[in-house]
Request: fold
Amino acid sequence: MLSRRIIPCLDVRDGKVVKGVRFRDHVVMGEIVDLALRYRDEGADELVFYDITASPEGRSVDRGWVERVASVIDIPFCVAGGIRSVDEARAVLHAGADKISVNSPALERPDLIDELAAAFGVQCVVVGIDSLRDADGEWHVRQYTGDPSRTQALPRRTLDWMVEAQQRGAGEIVLNCMGSDGVRQGYDLEQLAAVRKFCLVPLIASGGAGAPEHFRDAFLTADVDGALAASVFHSGAIAIPSLKQSLDAWGVAVRT
Amino acid sequence: MSVVLVDAGGTNIGSVRYALQRLGVEASLTSDADAIRTADKVILPGVGAAGPGMARLRELGLVELMRSLTQPVLGVCLGMQLLCERSEEGDTECLSLIPATVSRFSEQPGLRVPHMGWNRLQRQREHPLLDGLVDGDWAYFVHSYAVPAGDYALAVTDFGGAFSSVIARGNFHGMQFHPERSAKVGARLLKNFLEL
Reply:
């Protein structure tokens, strides 16, 4: 039986891991390779690295640290940040990343998803979606969330974009629920469950983890395949080995 | 010991190479027929689709060479699928070294394809490739097509039914998961291969 995945997310800025609250006010959490190794040793199932400033600054991800991570890490990892072409994606994959994740550039040019899937197969292609509920009561997509001054609210509905991304060749969806991000009050179960209904590929929850119960609810209530979290892992508030023990006791299939 | 990675265009070549480095082995990446023929161990990594994978081997003139190898050969992920007779993916004729047809996971409620994540290995037969592997050990998978469970399965994995996660026939071996990304279990299986 396939296990549910626990995925620490490392936001990378200027070669360091940083964390902000509600995507703002970033503070340095540590060195990339040190944190990657720590999570590998603690039993993380996968790692995600977001170069959070690459997309707003219009540049691609720095390959140097991707190679350093790939050479020491023996669990899968995904790299995101400003990948806007097949060539840039190839460079990151050849540097040793297992998957690449696209977000703002796919919104600029949705054909990018088709091109990546055709070049590398859908299993390499993750589409990240930053989503927030607006005054009309609907969830809508946000773009360029790495830079608050450039963040844009798009008219696209989150559900429509998720379905389109999947049809175009996304092999996995990461749903960043911005309304719950950074405040540790739990994942946005309502939104995740709504997206799950139409999401036929693996779905990863992001934004809001503060306690082991939040992971349980994301897996058992919203039926997501993986749960991503950052600050609770970086700060040591939740240790992955004890999180997995709790999940196991609650009947969630986890790799132990 | 000389180990070569056949450069069939897969994107996981770097990761496999690093995994071998962690085991103290410097593998060379090559599409040169002589280098492959004379290597002690040959690894065919692969990420992508069966059609382009076989087309690349054909372009490089390596199809007959791969079929003629007598040293231990390991196909990883797509590399394992290419060792079989055919793949339903693009209706592709493969290397025919292991009598099996690669098929897509069937649609089932709650079964999300690609099969992506950690799943358990269940031993089917004794084989030195599985030394130290405990029934139920976890490995990391990412794929939409699979080799059905059958006579050549050394280990199987359950995903809407059992499929072959490790296969062997003579000197040809395959792992559907990514040993280079399967933590200690993967490192042990790679080490076992190097010691065959």
About this structure: The mean pLDDT of chain A is 90. The domain at 5-249 of chain A is CATH 3.20.20.70 (TIM Barrel). The two ends of chain A are 13 Å apart (CA to CA). Chain A touches chain B at residues 1-5, 40, 45-46, 67, 70-72, 74-76, 90, 93-96, 98-99, 120-124, 171-172, 200-203, 225-226, 255 (CB under 8 Å).
